[in-house]
Each structure stands twice: as C-alpha cells, then as structure tokens.
Amino acid sequence: MPKMAKHTALTALMMLLAAACGGADGAPTDATPEPQPQRPDVGKPDRVDVPSGGGTVRPSDDPRPASGVELKLMVAPAQHDLAERVLGLDWDAAEHREVSFYDDAARTLYGAGLILRARDVKGDDDDSTVKLRPFAREQIDLPWFGEAGFKCELDRGIASGSAAKTSCSLTVVQGEGEIADVADGKRSIKKLFSSAQEALVARYVSVDPWTLDLHPVGPVKVRRLRFEPSALGGATRVTVERWRLPDGQQLIEISSKTDAASADALAAKLRAWLSALGIDVDAPGVGKTYEALF
C-alpha cells in the first residue's frame, strides 16, 4: 500500500461530488510541440467557490496559492561534455532515480493533457504523480490545494522566446518495490495511483486512462545533482539532471526554482552565468517528458 496520509471521508466525498460538476476550460500558455488537450467542462476560471463561506471571489482576490516557477535549460547535445566539465558535475555522487511513464502506443493520455509518472529513488521514498499539462491554477477547484502532494507550477525556459508551460499535479509516496512490481507485471499500473489521484483525473481529464491498454515507457535512468554556485551568490540552488533514455539518447537539463516575482531576475542571472561558462543559453529543445515518450 502507498505510504500516504489517509484522507477523511469528507475530503473523499468532496472530490467525488466535484467529479460530477461542469463548466468551461481556460486557455493554456504552452507553445511547444505538445498537443493541446480537450478538457471536460470544470467551471468558469474567473470565479472561485470558497468552501468556508463568503460566496465567490474575483481573480485579484484568488485564495489559491501562487504557482511556483521552475526555470530550465536543455543543454545542446554537442555541449554535454563542456557542461559536465565547466559545472564540475560528478555523476557518481548524484542521486540515482529511475523514471517510468505510462501511456498507450498512441500516446492518448499525453494528447489529452495527462502524464502518469512513477519515480524509483535510491535511498529515498519512491512516488507516483498524475500531472495535468497544460493546466493553470485558476482552473482547479480550491479544495485540491489542501491535498497533500498537490501543486501547480509554471515551467519556463531561460532561452530567448521560450514559452511558459503551466501544470498542476498530485504526487503520492509509493512503497518499496511497488514500481518494480508493475514493471515486472506483478501489479497493475492502476495500483500505483491513489483514490485522490484517480479523482483528480476523473475531474479534469476527458479520457479514462484505465480503459486504455497502458504500458510502461522506460525506465529512464536519471542522475540528479543539486548545488549553490558561488557565481550566483551561493544562495541560489541549481539542479542538473542527466536522463539516459532506453534508446541510449542522453539529455542534460539545468534548472532552478523561484517565485513569480523573482523569475525574470533569476532567469537573467542564470543566462549570464551559463553564457560566461560557454554554454549556449538559446539552444533549442523540447522537454524531458516529451523526449522520453516520443
């Protein structure tokens, strides 16, 4: 069984009732090659129901937590060796992960704006995630923000002209060996996902994933390093991930998280720092998930 906090009967009832509601979808901001999903009607995004009383509020008074921002750069393949050298990357000292995705052969879920993912983390808790992308926080019913493991965020490239990708996700902890059991065919894919994750999918995704012929995609071998470069003042945490896909392709991504108010300033600092190291900050590329699935 997943090692996650048990939800109260009231929360479960709220989520089940929410799945029966309807409305209008908001417009995504994503301009990458990723397809634009057809969403079920989920309520007007310019008004928010406040369950504690007080009727509705306008976006300027929106009680939903602000989305965090993750700034990213996919390093050009020709510069992988350079990046490893100038950043001093020691992959032997990195956190080891194996990442698997779940979809059918036609990538129906991806086309519907749903990503199912599991991470097997050496020395730490494993987890599973359902991610809605593109999807904005304004489209999400307020009670979801009280669910442990739920968040909305904005992914933004530091390359000039990069589009923002909005998403909302729910992550739960998995028991040791449960992800491997799915890969070995000992457990069904559905058992990796909690009742709350299933309720989120039922509420906001037009496709029922459990009616499809899902199969694992991966695992992707991941190495993850985190550090605070002195060139950025020693207070900015940078994450570098190396993904090795099953076909042998290698991806290296550099990223850093911040809030919306600080995003422009941090993006400029990252561009200046990486450019000074000789790394092409305007290298074209698509996201890691897209590369792994296609």
Specify the CATH architecture. Beta Barrel
Q: Kindly provide the name of the CATH class.
A: Mainly Beta
Which oligomeric form is depicted?
A: single chain
Give me the secondary-structure category. alpha+beta
- Please count the helical segments: 7
Order of helices and strands: HEEEHEHEEEEHHEEEHH
Mean pLDDT: 84
Task: Please name the CATH topology.
Answer: Hypothetical Protein Pfu-838710-001
Largest sheet: 9 strands, mixed, barrel
CATH superfamily: Hypothetical Protein Pfu-838710-001
Radius of gyration: 20 Å
Summarize the amount of helix as a percent range: 10-25%
Strand % is 25-35%
Count of individual beta strands: 11
Shape: globular
State the domain count: 1
Lateral strand order in the biggest sheet = 3-7-8-6-5-4-9-10-11
Low-confidence stretches: 1-33, 43-59
Give the topology.
Blueprint: H1 9-18, E1 48-49, E2 56-57, E3 68-74, H2 80-86, E4 95-103, H3 108-111, E5 114-121, E6 126-132, E7 150-157, E8 164-174, H4 178-183, H5 195-204, E9 215-227, E10 238-244, E11 250-258, H6 263-276, H7 288-293
Parallel strand pairs: 3-7
Antiparallel strand pairs: 1-2, 3-11, 4-5, 4-9, 5-6, 6-8, 7-8, 9-10, 10-11
Helix pairs in contact: 1-5
Can you describe this structure in just a few lines?
With 294 residues, the protein is an alpha+beta fold. It is 19% helix and 28% strand.
Q: Any overview of this molecule?
A:
With 294 residues, the protein is α+β, with helices and mostly antiparallel strands. The protein has one domain: Hypothetical Protein Pfu-838710-001, CATH 2.40.320. The chain contains seven helices and eleven strands. It has a nine-stranded mixed barrel with strand order 3-7-8-6-5-4-9-10-11. The radius of gyration is 20 Å and the shape is globular. Residues 1-33 and 43-59 have low confidence and may be disordered.
